[in-house]
Amino acid sequence: MKEKSAGIKYVVEAKFLVDGVVEKHDVIGAIFGQTEGLLPPEFDLRELLKSGKIGRIALDLTSEKDRTEGRIDLPSSLDRPETAIIAAAMESVDRVGPCEARIEIERIRDVRMDKRKMIVERARELLKDWVVREVQDAEKIIEEVATAEKQKQVVKYGPEQLTATADIAGSNSIILVEGRADVINLTKSGYTGIIALEGVKVPKTVINLSKKKEMTAFLDGDRGGDLILKELLQVADIKYVARAPRGKEVEELDPEAIKAALENKAPIGAVSVAEDVRDLVSELKGTLEGVLMDKDGKELSRVPVSQIVDTLKNSESVHLVVFDGIITGRLLDLAGEKGVKYVIGERLADSVKVPQGITVKSLSEFERKEENSKDKTSS
Predict the structure, then answer these.
(1) Contact between residue 279 and residue 308 where contact means Cβ atoms under 8 Å apart
(2) Using one digit for the tens of pLDDT, what is the confidence trace for 331-343?
(3) Do 318 and 292 touch, CB atoms closer than 8 A?
(4) Spacing of C-alpha 137 from chain mean position
(5) What's the pTM value of the predicted model, to 2 decimals?
(6) Would the pLDDT of 314 be above 90?
(7) CA torsion, points 364, 283, 342, 363, in degrees to nearest 10?
(8) Are 174 and 226 found together in one domain?
(9) Is the pLDDT of residue 148 over 80?
(10) Domains in the chain, number
């Protein structure tokens, strides 16, 4: 019988025979009663039981033909010599009630040996499982690395033989760049799902991919990138646009600059407005004129700044107002009433609160800077 008491080191295992019919409590009572006073007080079984130095005695018995026999297990947390003394005292019991009895110690079992054996067996199991798992993990790592390297491989894709990463067909999100050098630079920084335009004109392969997948156009920060973006907005379903810093090309960006540019990508709606305004700003700067446009970028009216408010009051479907003047509270209130989404001017007048639903920008945010680098159409 397995002892579960905390701190138990040994179990005294014995068998007994009684010439008569007795119960468990008779046998246990005889053990406690007949060993009392035989030994010094520190070996009194009742006191040892109270202090937890011995555990509760486990006993099994059967009675047949006026004889009772069975087994006794006495757990002990005492040292070896003390446990042996208790075992010897148990063997001195010669009666159970009115019946003659005999108790024989079979062995004193070291519970810790059983635990050690269990620990060794479990350690073997854990070690085996560990080794198997390490092999599996190593194989998985090798497979993942091989897959990642395969995905980074540059291939030719589509009828136009565009430069792309090998995983382009299976990627749900695609990064569109201008040339082969851009593809290679992005793969070195750990990016996949990349394809190049290989020219200014947008290939049919790119147009078809943009209709099936979420596409981000990552373009150079020069005039060439501006022109490519204009065409992309007309023929492809681009979702986001990321740009290299002004005057920089994607192929020369380091990993940190690539990460920053892609994290700052803009939804295509905001980009469309920006591109339309960028051309207007160069026209309107210094003219004291303003332009009203619809959501499709169509020019509705072009009037002097002094007539902007009255013109807006009498116009419908105005989406964007751009003018070479100060943005006043009166204009913004009217724009809110008319459903205008964007108002762009020289600056916002002091202490003016912008109504909800209107985006206010300054002309300086859309001014084109002089380009020092040549336009890049392919790499």
Answers:
(1) no
(2) 999 999 999 988 9
(3) yes
(4) 19
(5) 0.43
(6) yes
(7) 10
(8) yes
(9) no
(10) 3
